[in-house]
Amino acid sequence: MKELFPVEPMRSSLLDKLWDLQNNNRYISDSDISHLAAELNISAVEVEGVVSFYHFFHRKPSGKYTIYIDDSIIARYKGYHRIVEAFERETGATLGSVDRTGTFGLFSTPCIGLSDQAPAVLINFRPFTQLNVIKVKELVQQLRNGVDIDQMYHPPVSNVCTTIYSKKNIFFNSYTPGKAVKELTKHTSDDILSLLRDTNLSGRGGAFYPTWKKWEACRSYTADYKFIVCNADEGEPGTFKDRVLLQELPGLLIEGMIISGFTVNAQYGIIYLRGEYWWLYDQLQKTIDEFYKLGLLGKDIVGITGFNFDVRIQMGAGAYVCGEETAMLESMEGHRGEPRTKWFYPVEKGYLKSPTIINNVETICAAARIVELGVNEYNKTGLPGSPGTKLISVSGDCQNPGVYEIPWGITVAELLELCVAVDPYYIQVSGPSGECISINEKFRRISMLDLLGLPDLRCGGSFMIFNKEREIIDILLNFASFFKKESCGICTPCRAGNFIIERKLEKLKNKLARQSDIDDMISWGHIIKTTSRCGLGKTSCNSLVMAMQKFGGYFDKLIDKKEDSLMVGFNIEEAVADYEQYKS
Amino acid sequence: MEKMVNIKIDGKLLTVPDGQNLVNAAKDNGIFIPSLCYFEHIEPPLGTCRTCTCKLDGKYQPACTMKVHDGMTVEVNTPELLDMRKSLVEMMFSEGNHFCPSCEKSGNCDLQHMAYELGISVTRFEHLFKDRMIDYGSKRIIMEHNRCIKCKRCVEDVVTDDGKKVFTYQGRGNETFVGIDYKEEPKLSEQQAIAAMELCPTGAIIVRGVSMAHPFGEREFDINSEQKNFTRRFPKSHKPAGMEKKVLATASLAGCFGCHMSMLDIDLELLDLVELVTFNKSPLTDIKKFTGRCHIGLIEGGVCNDENIETLKEFRKMCDILVSVGECAVWGGLPAMRNTIPLSECLEEAYLNCVTSEEGANLVPYHEDLPKILDKIYACHDIVKIDHFIPGCPPSANHIWKSVKHLLWGEEYSILYSEFKYD
């Protein structure tokens, strides 16, 4: 059982407690629920509400070995179906259930942050990558023979790609523990804020909100205690740059959090690590422990009297929406990960109603590097107004998938060349919630600026390449069903709207849709975007609407043009198929 | 004294207390911003239903989660926002399984009332017919998950005297539902339980034995419109003279003929009617085959088999205007209750396993002369283009007649609040 900070109430430990039960017993039983309810003095249905929100928590035994198969669109194109079939055959479990002996549980899960090594699975939260049918057979055989899973597993490779720009690397460069934090002895919090302002650092999770503004706002509130939360819930399908940062530079991240704590006068740091990244936990915890030994965490850090800062890790449990900052706060408080309204901003009332900074892993790492390098050195790379580098997770139809550290300002075409893209046609930038571009836009820049009135691509980190053979409708359907399942379910447009959109796309895939159906989807996409409560709903239809507008020719081919305008597309064979079975 | 600020709502300049909730500020000044989840005493506001979405200083925001500030400009009733609001309520209808004619809360239901206020006759979205359970597990309260719109009112507001929640959301995404705690629920007093039922904006929380308190005609929303300034223009009486008779055709598909019976209920106006129209193919005339083109076709009932499809397509070919009359034609209605259950289960229950089936029955009827049953009930507009929709179960006689009359002679008209109903 991991320890909470002294200021945290017991409720905050609910997710940890559930994880212990899930990991030890392979499920959470009725009696566990009543015990937890009694312990926390809440009703059982409330505990059950939390359990059912996170898809890594099971209410039925999930097998001695719980296998999660990545069903992101990249994995689907790299052999997801073959892998599922192989696992089903070898384990005797069907997808979504446990085999009769209770040994293997087989489940699918959205992107696990290994798109560069798809198809991949998590077995008891240890990743096994680049699978094929033979590998699956061997894996299952070894597990059956009682081979220790930790002996079979190797951490996946980082795939940091070296490019012509690598000399300018800011992140993936030499790292000395404590170097950035020691700079704090020379700086005031005002200095740090101006460093961030002068380097235009903004939220790298994809929202690109100026980091200095957030930190300054948080600093302006007085409170007994404040929190720095690192958003390591990298759930956007196709994104894995934070995984690599956590694997390669965990120390840099912690230094960034310490700097943030120093700037806004916060005492506590929490890294919210997604459940899919359990395998990174030990190393991250080890780094934290080392930092305590080096005097970089704890009391009077680097000799600054009164500067105390502690860090702990909070594990998420499988919910994309918890990457939304206020949903993350709810989750950390031991609740369902439902985003809050904008009644308060986290910098004023965040975690436990205290001022809280929430930043993405990359943003925090960048802050540490900025303090370490100084404005001049940092601003040498990239564009004026959009300086520095960006980490991009490249996956899909290219020869060299992996993490690319590129200076802001290179074009899509240049990036495609770096990763040796194969016949690219449709590119999904910043994940399903981002934007899709066609190859005709390959001369657009990747930066935080505008070019001749047209905004550049502000890539949040995911860059999925699809060639001309890929069906766009399949990509969009995969996204729609992802959002349908991952919506927190409390606001109407996102919960019902994405479900409705999925149905309509199925109709289109079955060639039963008309031009009017396409127009409907564009107009409904607008409604879902403008009325949803949080970023999930607000962005869920972005790609859909853009694809309909940019790839009109493709959808034209799917539209049903057989019947006249008074008849609606309808497949009668399918509709009577159920009844036909009674034909004797 | 409270500080007052100036705000502008739909161009109207108002002076309101600083920091007041926008929904209340508008309401105090006679401007109605519809909402299904808003509860004044819950803070922070729930912001779940999103029907109060307005444009604040040019940005779309739900009014319920906004405090007024000086110089705020609010748009409430632009055509775009009205349509958006309508679409959100339509989404709730298409997502849940709302069978108004069989609902205890009908007539006292906020959701239904909101739909009347917004003038929804048919949802633009396909009904999703997701299989949902009815939870009879508690002693007193029945949870009808088909009707829940996930507004969160009960989750936030219903607690036992020792502070424990009785309702909490379960699951996620489109699987989200409100779970009830069997242990905590009995701790609520009768009064608290009834309060829970009343705070539910739909019929999702039902207290056994007390749910049907008011007869038809005396229910909360039978005659009252909350939005007092809602259009209440009466239709002009119409007395066409010396006009060419229009030709009508009618059909009943998967319906109960209730809508046809309702058409006959216009009593004395039937005499007017025969002056104005003649009937072609219709059960009223017993004309089986079309003998010529018709001006208007009235369809009762949804589509449950392939014969219905044939009939409907023929109507579409022969009629200039096609109208769905009644809930079944509009979206499936009561027969669509089977839509969440596999067809085989329905047929086997009906022909093999039910108490009235003969012993040893082992056959579900199938013959080439029998129409083939579809996997579910479809709305008429799932098959052919439908031009107009008249909801109701059945729509009242006057409502049908008025609509048809004005459609035939292309006149605009408005519908009375009290005659536009789903039950």
Description:
The complex is a heterodimer of chains A (584) and B (423). Chain A is an alpha/beta fold and 584 residues long. Chain A has four domains: 157 residues, Glutaredoxin (3-Layer(aba) Sandwich), CATH 3.40.30; 214 residues, Rossmann fold; 80 residues, Ubiquitin-like (UB roll), CATH 3.10.20; 87 residues, de novo design (two linked rop proteins). In chain A, the strands form five sheets. Chain A has a six-stranded mixed β-sheet with strand order 6-14-13-19-15-16. In chain A, strands 2-3-1-4-5 form a five-stranded mixed β-sheet, covered by helices on one side. Chain B is an alpha/beta fold and 423 residues long. Chain B has twelve helices and 17 strands. The longest helix of chain B is centred in the N-terminal third of the chain and has 17 residues. The chains are: A alpha/beta (584), B alpha/beta (423). The interface between A and B is large, with 62 and 71 residues.
Shape label of chain A: globular
Which fold name corresponds to the CATH topology of the largest domain in chain A? Rossmann fold
User: Could you describe the largest sheet of chain A, including whether it forms a barrel?
Assistant: 6 strands, mixed
Mean pLDDT across all amino acids of chain A: 94
Instruction: Give the helix level of chain B as a range of percent.
Output: 25-40%
Largest interface: A-B, 62 and 71 residues
What share of residues are in beta strands of chain B? 15-25%
> SSE order of chain B in H/E notation?
EEHEEEHHEEHEEHEHEHHEEEHEHHEEH
| Class from secondary-structure proportions of chain A | alpha/beta
Query: So what's the CATH class of the largest domain in chain B?
Result: Alpha Beta
The CATH topology of the largest domain in chain B turns out to be: Rossmann fold
Unreliable residue runs of chain A: none
Tally of helical segments of chain A: 24
Estimate what percentage of residues of chain A fall within beta strands: 5-15%
